[in-house]
Prior knowledge:
Helices cover 19% and strands 40% of the residues.
Amino acid sequence: xxxxxLSAEKRDSFGKGAARQVRRANRIPxxxxxxxxxxxxxxxxxxxxxxxxxxxxxxxxVTVEGKSxxxxxxxxxxxxxxxxxxxxxxxxxxxxxKVEVDVPVHVTGDAAPETVVQQELTTLxxxxxxxxxxESVEVSVQDAAAGTLVTAADVTLPQGATLAGDGExxxxxxxxxxxxxxxxxxxxxxxxxxxxxxxxxxxxxASEDAAADEAPAADQD
Length: 221
């Protein structure tokens, strides 16, 4: 994985007011920490940082006053309404160092007919080299039959990556599709449990009798 290069500036003012001023200048407040070093408070270029952080686990090469810092984003705070980046925590890493990261899971392929594929986990926690983090891991369900279960331990991982989480966690579950009859039966059972009684439809004979009673009697001589 190639590191995205960003040029940063040291930040000496703090607090909400200072952070707003930084963002108005189209920059993002951030802090670099790790490996026993004192936290380094910086500002990052707004657009370039936003583009870089579109990729999960983006490796960044941040230059501050001529010194390069190889970092991973550990916490990206966003405005809950507008979505812009408010602050970034950056963890210092070294080449060859192993780190734990959450990697997205992509399900590929088409399961057997009349089945439903349920993805139970969207990420897996892996231990990988900081400079060789996979963008995703794939789980194929091609032609998988109903009853197929894929656990974290079953997922084929990229070379050099090891599973850091629970191997028994369920990642994908392939079940049989529910028929219309099964849905109707489940609905009726739920209504019965809730004490809801369905109105029985009128029989055709009863409808005809009601129509006859409502019809005007014919004049008799």
